[in-house]
Structure formats: C-alpha cells, structure tokens
Design a protein that fits this description.
- By secondary structure, the chain is α+β, with helices and mostly antiparallel strands.
- It has one domain: Chorismate lyase (3-Layer(aba) Sandwich).
- The protein has six helices and six strands, in the order ααβααββααβββ.
- Strands 1-2-3-6-5-4 form a six-stranded antiparallel β-sheet, with helices on both faces.
- It is globular and about 45 Å long.
- The two termini are about 25 Å apart.
Length: about 210
Amino acid sequence: MRTSTEPSARGASDDIPGLGRVEQLVLRGDGLTTTSLEILTGTPIDVVVDEHWLLPLHDALETLADQGSGYTGTSAHQTGEAVRDAYDLLDAHGDETLLVREIGHRGRDGRRYGASRAVIVLDRLPVDVARRLASSDEPIGRALAASAVTVDRELRRWGLSPCGPRARRLSGAVRAGDPLPSRRYLMRRRDDGRPMAGFTEWFAPCVFGR
C-alpha cells in the first residue's frame, strides 16, 4: 500500500500533496471510523459487510500460485491482498485461518462514504469470539467488548492509495485507480500484545467535500 504519497506512521511529513488538514486529522488520529464519518457527513453511518469468507493460509498459498479459481465471494486478486496483509502485518503462520471481510460504510442518505478490508486471525481470538465472527456479520469490536477482550490500535500507514474494485461501491464516481485518503492499522490484544486483526480503510473524496 505504500506509495510516493503515503508516509509511514512515524516521522511523517505534514505536507502531503492531495491531503488537507481535515484528511490528515482523520487518517492520523485514533478516532473510530464510523464516528469520524458521521461528524464529517452529518448522517448516521451503517457498517455493511459486503463480502465475508474464511481463508486457511495453506490453501491461500496455493491460490496465489495458481491464478485460476478463487474462493467463494472473492477473486484471486483480493485473496492475494488478504494473504499479504496476514504475513506483512500480522506475522501469520501457515496453520492459521483468516476471516476476511470487505466492509462498506453507508450513510442513511444512501451514499457510500468508505470501504475497508479486515483480515482477522481467528486462531488468536477467544473461541466464542472466533465462532461468532465466523458465523455472522457482527462487528469485531462489539464481539470483543462482549467477551471483555481489550485491544490497542496501532497506525501503520496513512496517505493516498487506490482502492481497486471497491471503487464501484463508493459514491462520487470513484475509479479503481484514483488515489484516495487511506490508512492501515493493527488491532492488538492488550494482554499479550499479539496482532490479531489488520484493517485497511479508504475514504470517498466526497467525505471531505470534494
């Protein structure tokens, strides 16, 4: 996801072409995405799970090598993105299973203001949480809170990057290659510090009045 306009979370310049102060406040802050979108758009935001699938990592490696058939609900390209996230961000192992979700942020006005990819290592969650997430579209934050699992968020990247095929779901005539305000962060268990989920988020330009 790194591009020439995407700095790392540490030591980042505050003079990024294409990003104003409001965009940076959202991307670099630790506020919740839904809350930020509701403030900026003036409408309640619903989180919609567009795609949801389980991905055993040993099978994923075979999928990456063979660009033929993909998993249900996804393409080989999206599967590759999830696997890269698992290894690059989460230090995943070949015997672990991922839950991958493609998520949309939809306003009550009917517009799509954001899109995100969530990659969750089910093996690192309490059994009851993993079972609930794998069998429903319940948000991970709500499931963790219900089981009293506390987490920390760690910003890893922010800047501008294209969202690929997710663009067709966003409002504002967004194209697949358009550089959008985006960020990537980890969710770690506070008790042992292990990363258990990685999120990449993209914001439609109309969020910032473009």
